[in-house]
Write a structure and sequence with these properties.
The chain has 423 residues and is of the alpha/beta class. 44% of the residues lie in helices and 14% in strands. The radius of gyration is 23 Å and the shape is globular.
Length: 423
C-alpha cells in the first residue's frame, strides 16, 4: 500500500514538471517487416509532435511475457509495454503496471470515447492499467462460394450449433474422387482461446462466477456436452480435419485461401491474411456470430485485447503516460488499427472510421458484436496460462487417446483447481 502511494505521488509530481528531452523505451511483440515499418512511421509521427521525447522501440519476438518479467526483475524494464489481457493479473498483481486512472483528466482523455467493456478488460477494483491498442471478438468466418455451391443459405445471427453441424456436413466432400476428403465443413481447434467462446455459446462454463474454481463448471453437464459436440465434429462426423489431414492438404492457411474450409472460428487477425485473396477474387468470405447451443438462448463471445501500459519502475512516467495516451487516441490508432488492419480499435471514433472505409462490408459485423463480448478469464485469474495448458492436454487425451470427455474434463478441473486456484 505504501509503495503504491509513493509511486502515485511521484507520478503526480512529474506530470506537472516541465519536461526536458528524455528517452522512452517501449516494448511489444511482433517484428515482421510490415510491422517494423509501421512502428517506424508511428514513432516518427509521435516524435514530430513531441520533440522533447525520443522513442526507443524494443521488440521481444519470443517468450514475450517471460522476457518482460525478467527485465523487470533485473531492474531494467521498459517505460511502456504492451499488456495482453490474458496476462493482466500476472503484471498487475506483481505491481508492474501502473494504475493510470488518476491521470486521465490531466491527460485530457475522454474515457467515454472508448468501449466500456474493452476498458473493463484492463480494469480491476476501480483501477485502470492501460488504454487499448486493439482487440477482437471471436467470430465465425464462412465461405460464401462453398455455401452457394452446396445450395445453402448464409448463416443468420440466430443460428444454432445444430445448424452449424448440418451445413458443415453438406460442405464436407471428396472433390477429386480419390476416396479421400479434401474439402471440410469446418476447422475445429483444440486450443483454449478458441474453445472458450465456443463452450460459452453452447451454454457451458469454465470457472465459477467468482473465479474461484473450475470443478463443477469445466466438468459440468453443459460443458461436457459442449466438448463432446465439438470433438465429435472431428472424430464422429468428420466435418473438421485433424492435424494430420491439415498437414497433408498443405496447411491451414492453404486450405482457407483455396476454398477447402467452410467455417472457421477466429478473430479479426485472420481477416488480415484473407484480404489478399478477397482482393484477387479467389475468396468470398462472410462473418457471423458464433452459434448458440441447447443450454442458452443467445450467442456469447470473448474479447481478446492488448493495451499500452506504463511500468511502475519507469524513470519517465509523465512521458510514458503521454505516449500511452497518444497511442490509444485517434492519432495513434491511425497507425495501430487503420493502417495495420489486424484488429479493431477500443477507440469508438476510430472504429466508426474503420467501418466507413471498409470495402468488404465485414468490419460492421465485428463492431456489432462488441457490446456483447466478454472479458477473458485470463484478465481476472493470475497465471491462467497454466489452465490453458491443462485444457489443451485434456483435449489431447480426448482426441488422441480416446479418453472419455467426462473423464478428461474431471481431470482438467481438478488440475486447474490445484495448480491455478491453489485448492
Amino acid at each position: 500500500m505504501k509503495k503504491a502511494f509513493l509511486i502515485g505521488v511521484v507520478l503526480l509530481l512529474t506530470v506537472f514538471l516541465i519536461a526536458e528531452t528524455v528517452e522512452i523505451r517501449i516494448t511489444g511483440w511482433g517484428g515482421g517487416e510490415e510491422e517494423t515499418q509501421l512502428a517506424r512511421e508511428k514513432i516518427a509521427a509521435f516524435e514530430a509532435t513531441h520533440p522533447n521525447i525520443k522513442i526507443v522501440n524494443e521488440v521481444y519476438p519470443d517468450n514475450y511475457t517471460q522476457a518482460l518479467l525478467t527485465s523487470f526483475a533485473a531492474g531494467n524494464p521498459p517505460d511502456v509495454f504492451l499488456l495482453d489481457a490474458s496476462y493482466m493479473p500476472t503484471f498487475t498483481e506483481r505491481g508492474i503496471a501502473v494504475n493510470i486512472a488518476p491521470y486521465m483528466r490531466l491527460l485530457k482523455v475522454d474515457l467515454d470515447e472508448y468501449y466500456p467493456n474493452v476498458l473493463d478488460v484492463f480494469s480491476s477494483d476501480g483501477k485502470l492499467y492501460g488504454l487499448p491498442k486493439g482487440f477482437t471478438p471471436m467470430v465465425v468466418y464462412y465461405n460464401k462460394k462453398m455455401l452457394k455451391e452446396a445450395g445453402l443459405e448464409e448463416p443468420a445471427d440466430d443460428w444454432t450449433w445444430n445448424d452449424f453441424l448440418y451445413m458443415a456436413t453438406k460442405l464436407t466432400k471428396d472433390t477429386d474422387g480419390d476416396g479421400k476428403l479434401d474439402q471440410f465443413g469446418a476447422q475445429i481447434s483444440k486450443y483454449f482461446y478458441k474453445m472458450c467462446p465456443m463452450i460459452w455459446s453452447y451454454g457451458g462454463e469454465i470457472v465459477s462466477p467468482d473465479y474461484d474454481r473450475a470443478t463443477g463448471y469445466l466438468n459440468s453437464r453443459e460443458t461436457i456436452e459442449a466438448v463432446q459436440f465439438f470433438t465429435d465434429l472431428i472424430l464422429k462426423y468428420g466435418v473438421s480435419p485433424d492435424s494430420s489431414m491439415i498437414d497433408a492438404l498443405g496447411g491451414l492457411g492453404n486450405m482457407l485461401y483455396t476454398n477447402k474450409i467452410g467455417f472457421y472460428i477466429s478473430g479479426h487477425w485472420s481477416l488480415f491474411g484473407m484480404k489478399k485473396y478477397i482482393d484477387e477474387g479467389t475468396l468470398d468470405i462472410g462473418v457471423v456470430r458464433l452459434p448458440r447451443g441447447p443450454f442458452i438462448d443467445h450467442s456469447r463471445t470473448v474479447i481478446y485485447a492488448t493495451a499500452w501500459a506504463v511500468t511502475s519502475k519507469s524513470r519517465h512516467p509523465r512521458e510514458g503516460l503521454e505516449l500511452v495516451r497518444w497511442l490509444s487516441s485517434a492519432e495513434g490508432q491511425e497507425y495501430e488499427v487503420l493502417k495495420a488492419k489486424i484488429e479493431l480499435s477500443g477507440h469508438i471514433p476510430t472504429n466508426e472510421k474503420l467501418v466507413s472505409e471498409d470495402p468488404y462490408g465485414l468490419e460492421k459485423k465485428f463492431v456489432d458484436l462488441i457490446p456483447t463480448a466478454e472479458k477473458p478469464i485470463g484478465a481476472v485469474v493470475k497465471d491462467w496460462y497454466k489452465a490453458e495448458d491443462i485444457f489443451t492436454e485434456a483435449m489431447d487425451k480426448i482426441l488422441l487417446l480416446g479418453t472419455p470427455v467426462k473423464e478428461a474434463l474431471d481431470w482438467a478441473a481438478s488440475e486447474i483447481d490445484t495448480k491455478v486456484f491453489g485448492k
